[in-house]
Design goal:
There is one protein chain. β13 and β14 form a beta hairpin. The strands form four sheets. Strands 1, 2, 3 and 4 form a four-stranded mixed beta sheet that branches. Strands 5-8-6-7 form a four-stranded antiparallel beta sheet, with helices on one face. The protein starts with a strand and ends with a helix. Helix content is about 30%, strand content about 25%. The longest helix is centred in the middle third of the chain and has 15 residues. The chain folds into three domains: about 80 residues, no CATH class; about 110 residues, D-amino Acid Aminotransferase, Chain A, domain 1, CATH 3.30.470; about 80 residues. The chain is an alpha+beta fold.
Length: about 280
């Protein structure tokens, strides 16, 4: 069965691809992958699916903006379960606590994670008593990197800890995803002011690409390919996923993040044609 890549369209124009995905869309055309467009904004705001013409026999691979898991489930239903990745697989790769069970030996240490609905004074006390390092805070998907709600110090008092979690949730707003992840802070190696971070895309455990995931393309030191493949082989519950690696100050490598491949961005200097040409080998 052939696969169609589904991209978001420009606002209220189902015949024009969202400009943010134009290079990817054109790359699909160049390598012979079928494409279609859908109105992402209409879907998110009204749960209605407006889509361009699509082969009824195609499987569908999404390349779009992030969706919450309930939104993805609605999309799966509206697309008659033709998405290559079902909603359970999407949640597994998209929510860090889900995939953590399979990459915990490769990632930076996790202090704890919890659903927001489980937060109470007793839990805050337990967390505060067990903090040994400075802490990075994120929801199940994203952080607020670049703000004062990204890192807090290890000697934080209980009330301040509760306040920062509350402020973080407010800051994330409608983008907040389910719960909180607290990760122990680790020093990343820097080349000037640039950290050395790489994003790997996989399809069915096959490495599709490994690219420097920073706004600087002069760093040549990359993670060992044996490590890249070893981590990718741990993932058994998703077809299309990403793993982000970072070099620590001591020269070792750790997994920083993971994600569903359909809603993870390509790296800043990625060659879109090479990416989709490699992906096509596993779609056909």
């Amino acid at each position: 069965m052939k696969t169609t890549i589904l991209f978001p369209c420009e606002y209220d124009n189902i015949h024009v691809v969202d400009d943010n995905f134009l290079l990817e869309y054109n790359a699909c055309q160049s390598v012979g992958i079928k494409t279609a467009l859908f109105d992402h904004d209409l879907f998110v705001s009204e749960s209605k699916l407006k889509i361009s013409e699509i082969d009824s026999n195609s499987e569908i691979l999404l390349r779009s903006w992030m969706l919450k898991t309930d939104e993805y489930t609605k999309l799966e239903i509206l697309l008659e379960h033709k998405l290559i990745t079902n909603h359970w697989q999407y949640k597994y790769a998209h929510h860090f606590p889900e995939i953590l069970q399979d990459i915990k030996y490769y990632t930076t240490p996790i202090n704890c994670w919890f659903h927001l609905s489980d937060m109470n004074d007793e839990l805050i006390n337990i967390i505060q008593n067990n903090i040994k390092t400075d802490i990075l805070i994120k929801d199940f998907v994203k952080s607020e990197k670049g703000t004062d709600l990204f890192i807090f110090e290890k000697d934080i008092i209980r009330q301040d800890l509760k306040n920062i979690i509350d402020k973080f949730v407010i800051q994330r707003g409608n983008l907040f995803n389910d719960g909180i992840v607290l990760k122990e802070f680790v020093e990343l190696k820097k080349y000037g002011k640039i950290t050395n971070e790489w994003r790997a895309f996989y399809f069915d455990k096959n490495l599709i690409s490994l690219e420097l995931n920073t706004e600087n393309n002069i760093i040549s030191n990359k993670p060992d390919i044996k490590l890249i493949k070893e981590v990718g082989n741990q993932i058994n519950k998703s077809k299309f996923y990403t793993i982000d690696f970072a070099e620590l100050s001591d020269g070792t490598w750790k997994v920083l993040e993971a994600g569903d491949g359909q809603v993870s961005g390509l790296s800043p200097y990625q060659n879109e044609i090479l990416f989709y040409n490699m992906l096509k080998k596993y779609l056909d």
